[in-house]
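Sequence in, structure out. Go.
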Amino acid sequence: MEKRLTLLAALIFALASLSSCSSDDDEQQGPKHEDVNLSTGETYSISTGGNWQSAEPLIASVSGNIVTAQRVGTTTISSESSSFQLTVNPRYNLYDTPCLQWGASPSYVNTFMDGYNMLKVEGNIVMYDGKGGATSYAYLFENNRLKSSAVLVDAMAYGDALVDYLTERYIVIDVNESENYVMMVNIEQDMALMISFYVISSNLYSMVLYTSIDSTESRTRNSVSHEMEHAIKELNIGKPIHNANTNALMQRFIMQ
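Output:
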């Protein structure tokens, strides 16, 4: 567990360093090109010369005058004398993002989930039915404040689509096949995701658990992974499973 927490802290620090290396580009002033919209994986060729850079390489990278859309989001592409805004749109929309307003009340979450049927309330857990690729949603509260959100996905039907959906939005920082989980963070490094696999009623499912993190080392080291594992136990969906199907999905995460 301590090894996992150390790895999470180190990788988040490395990602923060990468993200901030070109933060000064946001201050660039000068004539603007027309803003550009791409989908993940697409490229754009800038027609004018210059030393072009991306304010957020995790969203879009630049090599020469070629911009490559990496992940969903918006960033500024700039040179010494010009700039434009680049928006990267998703290719995959497997399920609606759960409520990620940490600290929200159950009533706020219920309003957020308008259009979804509430399945049950059990202790500090509220569950809703799913749509699209989501089988169900679960919200875990502490003192009536949202602590974690989870989405259950049919991994046999949507496993590959789940990998595509997550990797175009978030960054893989750890794939642990022995303990059967994938750890990811968002670009801002203020939210962590844990993806694990379970057999429920003879079918393979993946649970995507979201929770907040912050920039303090103590919060990252001492709380995040423990809270995620505790949340999984509270959901009471059984023990994680590792088989040929989960191995194939984990290999896809590794390749991203």
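Check: Residues 2-20 form the longest helix (19 residues). Residues 2 and 221 are 8 Å apart (CA to CA).
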